[in-house]
Amino acid sequence: MIKITFPDGSVREYEAGVTGLQIAESISPRLAQDVIACGVNGETTELNRPINADAAIKLYKFDDEEGKHAFWHTSAHLMAEALQELYPGTQFGIGPAIENGFYYDVMTPEGVKLNETEFPKIEKKMQELVQRKEALVREEISKQDALDFFGKRGQTYKNELIEELEDGHITTYTQGNYTDLCRGPHLMSTAPIKAVKVLSVAAAYWRGDEKRPMMTRVYGISFPKKKMLDEYIEKLEEAKKRDHRKIGKEMELFFFSDRVGKGLPMWLPKGTALRIRLQDFLRKIQKRYGYQEVMTPHIGGKSLYVTSGHYAHYGKDSFQPIHTPEEDEEYMLKPMNCPHHCEIYASQPRSYKDLPLRIAEFGTVYRYEQSGELHGLTRVRSFTQDDAHIFCTPDQVKGEFLRVMDIIGIIFKALDFKDFEAQISLRDPSDKEKYIGSDEVWAEAERAIIEACEEKGLTARKELGEAAFYGPKLDFMVKDAIGRRWQLGTIQVDYNLPERFKLEYTGADNDKHRPVMIHRAPFGSMERFCAVLIEHTAGHFPLWLTPDQVVVLPISEKFNDYARQVNKYLNDHDVRSTVDDRNEKIGRKIRDNELKRIPYMLVVGEKEAAEGTVSVRKQGQGDQGSMNYQDFAQKIDTEVREMTEQL
Ligand SMILES: [Zn+2]
Ligand SMILES: [Zn+2]
User: Fold this and answer.
1) What CA–CA distance (Å, rounded) separates 128 from 125?
2) Which helix (H) or strand (E) holds 267?
3) 458 C-alpha vs ligand 2 centroid, how far in Å?
4) What's the 504 CA to ligand 2 centre distance in angstroms?
5) CATH tag, 286-296+337-537
6) How far does the centroid of ligand 1 lie from the alpha carbon of residue 53, in Å?
7) What is the pLDDT of residue 210?
8) CA–CA separation, 346 vs 133, rounded Å?
9) Separation of 470 CA from ligand 2 center, angstroms?
10) Relative to the alpha carbon of 136, which ligand is closest?
11) What distance in angstroms lies between residue 411's CA and the mean position of ligand 2's atoms?
12) Is pLDDT above 80 for 370?
């Protein structure tokens, strides 16, 4: 008999050679039906693999990451089987599971081009193959046999992979007529793959090397239930509509220029107006919470980053130093604002009476990201942090956390993020050696963060061992309007930089002490936050924030003068308004401005000009009747005031 330990710590005895499936069956028939794969001593394997010695086991369903992974990975094999049947002679590269679904890199035979018209055929073939309920049969095979097997089938890419493997560790999996070189883990058969969708194709160099052949990467996704696929597709469609890159273009918020460079966003006037308004909003709150604003340069001497430790850690992976022509000094583009702020702290003697010192900066930083990793405003090479550093005494940490959490709460409320959660990253208690700072200060800071969350009634997940070596932190995750999770603000305790920069303050005891440093950024970065906000609101920003609140639409050229008169009155009364006096039909003007997501459209024609009124259309709600334009200005003012007063 062998001992099987379950995640809850309970232990049961089984015959040696028992499988994960048999273990699930021994617990409940329902579980046996839902389980997809199992973890044996931390390694995911098939449910039908015999377990021959004592082991810790976990049973995975589709809801578990590991379960999804095995499911999608098996689906990649299924898609390959379909491609092989549909397009004989297809050569296969690699086919992994990814975060959402799976892909396979393939080289199609002469004359076959995989594009959207082929997708339904592939899906149909996959569904047909699933009906055969084929088992995935695992085989250990010698290197030579593997080379012969795949060589005979013209699978040159597989053979290249085999060449790099060690003999004695090569396995294949076969379902039906399709055999793949693979380590697993998989489902026991393709039968549970009830719903499949081929999503897209892209060009991909073999092994990511641009000197190697260009293959076709076929992306797909699959689910154990048709309903789950339908929901996924619906969400995908909604996400596409909300894509911040698309809306950013329609609303003229930002753009990228190849000549300026990849991942370097350019903010257009309307996007800039949005950003400034967000910054001013935060500025106002920060002032209330005792922050002082500073400004620092975009570059810093190399020695600054040697002192901070960033150079040793990230030097090779960042933008390389800039050299001055005459003196050959070295400067780095700043990857973070903290070292500059440490220098500001150190610029004068500090006493405990000066603490907490809170210095804030909308600081632009530059970080190298591989070009393939860049994505709209969410992964960029230059971004502006809503950064601040708080220098305080150890016993002030909790109070400062509470204050920062207040600020974050105000922001989330103002921008209608109702659903958010937090994660506290703590030390690994079994390995205290690897952390800088004394045991007492760590224990105090960790307790402070946990208590602060409790006092705020914030549910926070605690993650042991997730803290950086220099201090614990608190991260905020928001759920957007369509249920996606985004990581935003962070509050991070830091014992390292005050040490490296030898920061001090004079205590009440007249001795020198090290301050604690807290990094915090409620938005995270302006770029990322704007992207999330665009996708959360689908571009329909709250009235107080939106770049243009009103557009006046004259029905024809005859009423352009009256439209301008209305517009001027609105602008004079702090309403952000423009006129669309293009020589276009009114229907076209309405459609175009709807795309710009301007909350109010004021249509003016003969009747309005004669009566001094405007016909009000509200975005998403249509016609609201007519009113004096003076009253309309008053209405906007009241609406904005009601929204901002409570912030
Ligand atoms: Zn596989
Ligand atoms: Zn910092």
Assistant:
1) 5
2) strand 266-267
3) 24
4) 18
5) 3.30.930.10
6) 25
7) 83
8) 70
9) 12
10) 1
11) 20
12) yes
In the block, which residue shows the tokens 């301008």? Answer: 564
Each residue's pLDDT tens digit, 435-471: 887 888 888 889 989 999 999 888 898 988 889 888 9
- pLDDT for residue 99 is more than 90: no
SS3 352: helix
Among the listed residues 180, 386, 387, 494, the single catalytic one is: 387
Whether 530 is catalytic is no
| pLDDT tens-place string over residues 376-422 | 999 999 999 999 999 999 999 999 999 999 999 999 988 888 888 89
Q: Which ligand is nearest to the CA of 172?
A: 1
What pLDDT score was predicted for residue 419? 85
Write down the catalytic residue from 385, 396, 492, 549: 385
Closest CA to 182 of 141, 127, 132, 225: 141
Q: Which CATH superfamily is domain 68-241 in?
A: Threonyl-trna Synthetase; Chain A, domain 2 (3.30.980.10)
Specify whether 212 is catalytic. Answer: no
Confidence band of 214 (pLDDT split at 50, 70, 90): very high
Catalytic residue among 138, 155, 158, 338: 338
End-to-end Cα distance, the chain: 65
User: What is the spatial distance between Cα 229 and Cα 222, in angstroms, rounded to a whole number?
Assistant: 7
For CATH 3.10.20.30, list the domain ranges present in the chain. 2-61
Asked if the model's pLDDT at residue 182 lies above 90, the reply is: yes
Given pLDDT bands bounded at 50, 70 and 90, which one contains residue 615? very high
CATH 3.30.980.10 domain range(s) in the chain: 68-241
pTM: 0.79
pLDDT value of residue 433: 81
CA of 263 to the centre of ligand 2 (A): 22
Instruction: Specify the range with the lowest mean pLDDT, choosing from 204-218, 285-299, 435-449.
Output: 435-449
Architecture of the domain made up of 2-61: Roll (3.10)
Q: How many A from CA of 497 to the centre of ligand 2?
A: 9
Helices vs. strands in the chain: H and E counts, helices first: 20, 35
Residue 385 appears among annotated catalytic residues: yes
Q: Taking the alpha carbons of 445, 446, 450, 451 in that order, is the dihedral positive or negative?
A: negative
| Cα 121 to averaged position of ligand 1 atoms, centre (Å) | 23
Catalytic residue among 270, 358, 389, 536: 389
> What pLDDT, in 10s, does the model give residues 489-499?
899 999 889 99
Catalytic residue status for 473: yes
pLDDT recorded at residue 293: 97
Counting residues of the chain whose pLDDT is more than 70, the rounded percentage is 100
> Which CATH code of 3.30.930.10, 3.40.50.1000, 3.40.50.800, 3.40.50.2300 fits the domain covering 550-645?
3.40.50.800
- Rounded mean pLDDT, 476-483: 86
Structure tokens at 579: 């006129």
Helices (H), 141-183: 143-152, 156-163
Q: Any catalytic annotation for residue 367?
A: yes
Task: Please give the Cα distance from 637 to 574 (Å, whole number).
Answer: 8
| pLDDT over 90 (residue 132) | yes
At 500, give phi and psi (nearest 5°). Answer: -65, -35
Q: Which ligand is nearest to the CA of 190?
A: 1
What pLDDT, on a 0 to 100 scale, did the predictor assign at position 476?
92
Question: Shortest CA distance to 483 belongs to which of 417, 411, 413?
Answer: 417
